[in-house]
Amino acid sequence: MEAAAQGITSNLPLLTLIVLVPLLSIPFKMGGFFDSILVYLRRLHNSPIKLFTGITSVLFFLGPILNLGSIRVIHDLIKDLRLKATFLSKAYLVGFSTTILWSPYYAAVGITLLYLQVSVVDYMSYGIGLAVLFLLVGIVMFGIWSKKQQLEAEDYQVEEVTAVHRQKLKALPFIILTLMAVTITAEYITNWSMLVLVSLLSLLFPAVWMLYSRQWGPFKHHLVEYKDKAVPIMNNEIIMYISAGFFGQSLRGTTFGEGINVFMANVAQTSFLLFALFILVTMVCVTFVGIHQVVVVTVLATQMDPVMIGTSKEILAMVIMLAWSASSILSPVNPINLLVSTLLKKSSLEVGLRDNGLYVLVVCAIGIAILNFVH
């Protein structure tokens, strides 16, 4: 019974993170930041490359705070611009997939660092570097693709960017980076879990914003909306993470769990490049048939010993996150792929493989090469 209870509760800190992080979006809604983003993106409409850069950059910063909601927010803001579906599928998945690599506010990073017991300070030097690199690669690849497609922007009347809009656009990344810096500094000082610190910040930041702005009415409205709309849709995700935690804990000390560790160590000793490719291909194949990445990561991260594999915990975490990001784009049944395909009314295979397959192939090759070199 004790082992069963431990398995069920092993992911509770992560579930707290998933439930509370959406609260961080309330100050940005109250502050009118999303309206400024809309004006900014509409100003870039006449240049496909600039608009693509703008969308991916906004997702890069908003993704950690809004999770999948960031794609919905951006889509609602620009849906009347009549942009082509292929353009949007590339922008949405390139922008959001980079978030998966680096943000400590994102559940994927949280669960990987939790199981491997990696400090976010040590991880971020790898994660943020690869994320920015992949974002630049995506922009360059889109620029090449757009010239071949000869994309032409339609005439569109846009609103003038005022000084207030410029101020908000400059403040947005500053606020988000400040939140990141606060949590990283707090982890360094207190040695508390990043999951606990992020959860506390998710409660404190909206409270401080409310006290500063004194917008009691709008704040209450957003809280009610969060309680009635945001929390209920997390039910499936909550059950999935609890089940994955139970499954991972149940394998500890078993013959099967030890077998996984020995097998992965043998593969890594043969070639670290082969080991990284095996993790990547396994993650993509398993998620392609409908099994969520959290199940795979729970099994791998709880059973693998970085010392036996001959690498560091940070490199192992980065390999797992690269595989998670790639599988999120390619898997036709992954929530990210399904959301984009639903919004754009395209099939999941078109959104993943056809529109973004080459991008995934390029960034995975670059990522594995860099990690193999650092290893």
Automatic annotation (TrEMBL):
<feature type="transmembrane region" description="Helical">
    <location>
        <begin position="356"/>
        <end position="374"/>
    </location>
</feature>
<feature type="transmembrane region" description="Helical">
    <location>
        <begin position="171"/>
        <end position="189"/>
    </location>
</feature>
<protein>
    <submittedName>
        <fullName>Uncharacterized protein</fullName>
    </submittedName>
</protein>
<keyword id="KW-0812">Transmembrane</keyword>
<feature type="transmembrane region" description="Helical">
    <location>
        <begin position="123"/>
        <end position="145"/>
    </location>
</feature>
<feature type="transmembrane region" description="Helical">
    <location>
        <begin position="12"/>
        <end position="31"/>
    </location>
</feature>
<keyword id="KW-0472">Membrane</keyword>
<feature type="transmembrane region" description="Helical">
    <location>
        <begin position="92"/>
        <end position="117"/>
    </location>
</feature>
<feature type="transmembrane region" description="Helical">
    <location>
        <begin position="195"/>
        <end position="212"/>
    </location>
</feature>
<feature type="transmembrane region" description="Helical">
    <location>
        <begin position="51"/>
        <end position="71"/>
    </location>
</feature>
<feature type="transmembrane region" description="Helical">
    <location>
        <begin position="272"/>
        <end position="303"/>
    </location>
</feature>
<feature type="transmembrane region" description="Helical">
    <location>
        <begin position="315"/>
        <end position="336"/>
    </location>
</feature>
<keyword id="KW-1133">Transmembrane helix</keyword>
